Amino acid sequence: MAHAVSPLAQPLPDLPPIAGVRLGATAAGIRYVGRDDLVMVELAPGTTVAGVFTTNRCPGAPIDWCRSALKGGKARALVVNAGNANVFTGRAGADAVRQSAEAAAELVGCRSREVFIASTGVIGQPLPVEKITAALPSLHASLAEDGWERAARAIMTTDTFPKAATRTARIGETEVRISGIAKGSGMIAPDMATMLAFVFTDAKLPAPLLQRLLTKGVATSFNCITVDSDTSTSDTLLLFATGTAKHPRVPPEGGPILRGFRTALDAVLHELALLVVRDGEGAQKLIKVSVSGAVSATSARRVALSIANSPLVKTAIAGEDANWGRIVMAVGKAGEPADRDRLGVAIGGVWMARNGTVVEGYDEAPVVAHIKGREVDIAVDLGLGRGAATVWTCDLTHAYIDINGSYRS
Amino acid sequence: MAHAVSPLAQPLPDLPPIAGVRLGATAAGIRYVGRDDLVMVELAPGTTVAGVFTTNRCPGAPIDWCRSALKGGKARALVVNAGNANVFTGRAGADAVRQSAEAAAELVGCRSREVFIASTGVIGQPLPVEKITAALPSLHASLAEDGWERAARAIMTTDTFPKAATRTARIGETEVRISGIAKGSGMIAPDMATMLAFVFTDAKLPAPLLQRLLTKGVATSFNCITVDSDTSTSDTLLLFATGTAKHPRVPPEGGPILRGFRTALDAVLHELALLVVRDGEGAQKLIKVSVSGAVSATSARRVALSIANSPLVKTAIAGEDANWGRIVMAVGKAGEPADRDRLGVAIGGVWMARNGTVVEGYDEAPVVAHIKGREVDIAVDLGLGRGAATVWTCDLTHAYIDINGSYRS
């Protein structure tokens, strides 16, 4: 775990308290030695919850639990451990989740299905749940409104820096806050929440509305990032609303009163998602891939992901090589409508290729200068329609091999 | 290009002459210095031809040419260059192909559409066709029946060893030979021929039958290998039959008389495909992924490719880490029918996980010993149906990053 901090890291923002949220972390000794690895959050009575989970067909036991618990729409506690994902652990894995939830429920004084559980770490090893249940009572006794940073650090695995984002918004005249923490570095690909992220607000919003806001916000944030095209078995994004803020009642359909809240929520989700890419295993560069001129937004996203997941594109960027031919290849392999002879490719705002061939008088110098920076912009215009999409990824470097060739040892 | 020879390399077999095939190579100076980079093959009058090409939507100009020429079903010559793929080169690229074909046609005394063209190398740079047309006359004068090794070497790009395979078969009582050469190392993914490969036989077979044999043979050979999931813009597999062997007439539908020939052809295609994986960029280990128990063969192949293309699986194998959890992840992310609680995973014939959890008393020692070898077998049983498929890939190592972070420099 002793990898250097990503050069793309961002400092942890200051996270003010959110009424109705008390949290903390402790070292339960699940796998790591000498660091926090267990987080508990207690939520005020009346807290509603929404969630998005991995689409992987072999999800971990905590995913099964959360999907079921989410049907109630209510949450009183969250328990998260790092170091062991509790995936592919059979009946024992399901039992472990139930035991954790029951232990937390007893401490909080709620039903076990109001407790949400997430685990991240190695797959296929039995979770030592007795270490969690043994640590929970004193952890619960220590929960506080200011435990954000410690919680953000405790959920890290191969992450090299803690990740959080916060915004305020007004509902009517009342200020509400939205804060989130996230972890994720490898096994990151879209079509799900792609890591663990927990977002909290003091707004008072019914669970179905909260779910609609979250599902919509995910489409352009967590579902538009990829590190290595590998889809985790544990991805979990939960959004909790404690309802402690005294704002005007929000109607079930949301509507104009929520405009500012939606914008702030989308900003928190977007910032958290980009922090995950910034900590992509071995990342040296943040890559933004914008595709326009596609036959539809869905088609544009598929082409953008084909580029963002191409090992040859990602190694070229790592090598600071403006090899736009590989971008052409990645467009073509996506299987989406594309016409070689209308295609344009730009890096750093400089169009290098247009209409199926290199731009006349193309000067590589400004592109090379751009690609040597920490943030690289790739743009592709398919020239077919009005569909557009943007996704983010990172480069593929030696450090990715280092980290993943020895993760368990 | 000065990369060490792959530890998975196989020695070049001795390739006896095939009546009706004369070939050679020369240094045309297209991109490389001091090595052959241009191959010409002259084929006897009456030669039939079949082909399979990339499914990439941005194919190179030579692909357009070959697809059109293939409609005639006849071939008299093949011209191949290495160092420049003539992809995304617009009108000039198409003109270059036509000029090469016309120059070869004049030397051979045939129509230009009986000349097949293939190019491999960097994308997006104009092909200096004048170097090809200038080199062709003396190259043509030097063609010989024994030019196989030189041709196999001249088509290499990032390849670290030349690739060829040969077999004999009987049609009736007459022995015929099938020999092929191939190149390919990176930008290798299925759904196409996935590189350049040229296979020759002295059998006399009508073009439509030849095409059916090739299409069928590709499904379980070249379309079941992957190095990096990236689909080349230039992949070309051509099969030429000179018809010089004096065997009984083969009916248009083929039938039992071709049984031995089909087996031998499939063996040549399979051997060539595996040679490409053995030379996968940076490969240290050959990985065989067998999936059984799927709902269909198509589903099994998709699951196998999801495993074979997973960077996390490939880096784990590179690190000699029997991390079967990542195999579970890759099964789940394929999006194909899978039931976590029926899934089994084996490495080196040892079942590590069954029915959704680790096998009781699982001993990692024999698996670790197996994974330290050059050839690693992964087996997955989905436990759902009778669909099965096998694909081959290689591990993902530092050398892949080295090679692809500096390909153009």
From TrEMBL, chains A, B:
The record marks T120, G121 as: Involved in the stabilization of negative charge on the oxyanion by the formation of the oxyanion hole. GO terms for cellular component: cytoplasm. The keyword GTP-binding does not apply. It catalyses: L-glutamate + acetyl-CoA = N-acetyl-L-glutamate + CoA + H(+); N(2)-acetyl-L-ornithine + L-glutamate = N-acetyl-L-glutamate + L-ornithine. Its EC number is 2.3.1.35, 2.3.1.1. Its main location: cytoplasm. Pathway: Amino-acid biosynthesis; L-arginine biosynthesis; N(2)-acetyl-L-ornithine from L-glutamate: step 1/4; Amino-acid biosynthesis; L-arginine biosynthesis; L-ornithine and N-acetyl-L-glutamate from L-glutamate and N(2)-acetyl-L-ornithine (cyclic): step 1/1. Keywords: Acyltransferase, Amino-acid biosynthesis, Arginine biosynthesis, Autocatalytic cleavage, Cytoplasm, Multifunctional enzyme, Transferase. The active site is at T194 (nucleophile). InterPro entries: Arg_biosynth_ArgJ. Catalyzes two activities which are involved in the cyclic version of arginine biosynthesis: the synthesis of N-acetylglutamate from glutamate and acetyl-CoA as the acetyl donor, and of ornithine by transacetylation between N(2)-acetylornithine and glutamate. Heterotetramer of two alpha and two beta chains. NCBIfam families: ArgJ, PRK05388.1. This is Arginine biosynthesis bifunctional protein ArgJ.
